[in-house]
Recover the amino acids of this structure.
């Protein structure tokens, strides 16, 4: 065409599409990024990534360190991440069903093992149905937008996990944020929310940064009084809290009063990946039609499904592993408190050693690694400013000797850095 030939003969002027403008924009972006990164380093909140060269477990190999390192910061609560039966089940699923589905669920991405796992999770939680996601972050991102409208209200604990916060941001419901575990504040906001069609109270079952457990009995009582449905994220409870490891709702005796549970397969239940929503069948049916992370994400890989399914089998066959957590948690918490440390939370295997200063948390964590103990300092923006800590996590596969060695290392490092007298 004549206009194409003319366009090709016309020299480019220094306009929006010129290379010089593109380079200028890139330089500006680089300057902004370098400023942000320098600010993080200057604040002492830079998060490095240590490289593990072995399987996940109570003892690991870490690049740059010699010998076995005791791992006290994994979400591997039941020690199933490297359990031989879990690994074997994953290998069997990989061999029989392949590496992946190359598809979302509703096109050609649903295998019988996906449906079997969903049914098994529903039985475990004593719910009607379950829907699988690539992660619990996706499950939290996908539920509120699909269910709640501008006619509804969502009431969320101010310290809920970031995935709940982000999921709520996506929905158009009227948003309330109540003070952390403050039931008077929740009641006041429930009273104000009576003008809306549906009311949902959303809370973590166990709060991952502080190791405290939501007052579900009181939340459920208020929700019944003000006709609200209860949503609980059980990522840091599924598998080990409650007599049979079903979570905080079982622990506190309110399983029949919690409407919706979101949780993960990536922590206690094998530690690979995956999340889920379990609850009323009508809700699960709606999520299959409307939940965007479900509709637009590939199906869980068969190996992940196989591992999670076997982890659930082990848990449902016996509660012995789950029950072993309590004594180990008490041992660590009591010994650390006796040494003079402040441990946040209550009776949860998440044991935050509160230090306050971000640099102190980072330096102590580095020195703990030199003593053969793998822990990580947490600071802003993961936790509020001035609330830096080292989060220790107890696993069912830690021995009493492992726990005692960890405490001894904390005492040495704490005295070195002035955290203990």
């Amino acid at each position: 065409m004549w206009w194409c030939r003319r366009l090709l003969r016309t020299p480019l002027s220094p306009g929006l599409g010129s290379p010089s403008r593109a380079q200028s924009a890139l330089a500006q972006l680089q300057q902004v990024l370098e400023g942000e990164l320098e600010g993080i380093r200057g604040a002492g909140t830079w998060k490095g990534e240590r490289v593990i060269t072995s399987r996940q477990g109570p003892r690991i190999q870490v690049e740059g360190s010699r010998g076995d390192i005791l791992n006290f910061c994994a979400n591997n609560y039941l020690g199933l991440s490297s359990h031989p039966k879990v690994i074997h089940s994953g290998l069997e699923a990989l061999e029989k069903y392949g590496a992946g589905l190359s598809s979302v669920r509703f096109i050609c991405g649903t295998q019988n093992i996906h449906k079997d796992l969903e049914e098994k999770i529903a039985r475990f939680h004593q719910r009607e149905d379950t829907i699988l996601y690539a992660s619990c972050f996706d499950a939290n991102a996908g539920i509120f937008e699909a269910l709640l409208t501008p006619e509804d209200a969502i009431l969320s604990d101010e310290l809920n996990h970031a995935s709940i916060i982000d999921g709520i941001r996506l929905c158009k419901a009227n948003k309330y944020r109540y003070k952390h575990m403050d039931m008077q504040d929740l009641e006041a906001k429930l009273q104000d929310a009576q003008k809306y069609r549906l009311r949902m109270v959303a809370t973590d079952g166990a709060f991952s940064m502080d190791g405290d457990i939501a007052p579900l009995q009181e939340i459920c009582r208020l929700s019944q009084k003000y006709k609200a449905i209860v949503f609980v994220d059980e990522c840091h409870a599924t598998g080990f809290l409650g007599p049979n490891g079903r979570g905080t709702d079982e622990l506190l005796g309110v399983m029949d009063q919690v409407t919706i549970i979101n949780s993960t397969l990536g922590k206690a239940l094998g530690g690979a990946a995956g999340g889920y929503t379990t609850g009323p069948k009508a809700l699960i049916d709606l999520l299959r039609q409307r939940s965007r992370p479900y509709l637009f994400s590939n199906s869980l890989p068969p190996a992940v499904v196989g591992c999670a399914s076997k982890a659930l089998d082990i848990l449902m066959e016996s509660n012995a592993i789950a029950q072993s957590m309590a004594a180990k948690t008490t041992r660590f918490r009591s010994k650390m408190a006796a040494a003079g440390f402040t441990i946040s939370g209550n009776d949860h295997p998440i044991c935050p050693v509160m230090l306050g200063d971000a640099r102190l948390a980072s330096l102590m964590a580095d020195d703990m690694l030199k003593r053969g103990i793998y822990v990580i300092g947490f600071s802003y923006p993961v936790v509020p400013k001035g609330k830096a800590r080292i989060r220790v996590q107890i696993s069912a596969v830690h021995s009493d000797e492992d726990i005692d060695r960890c405490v001894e290392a904390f005492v040495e490092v704490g005295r070195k850095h002035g955290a203990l007298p």
About this structure: The CA atoms of residues 143 and 291 lie 6 Å apart. DSSP finds 16 helices and 13 strands in the chain. The radius of gyration is 24 Å. The longest helix spans residues 19-42.
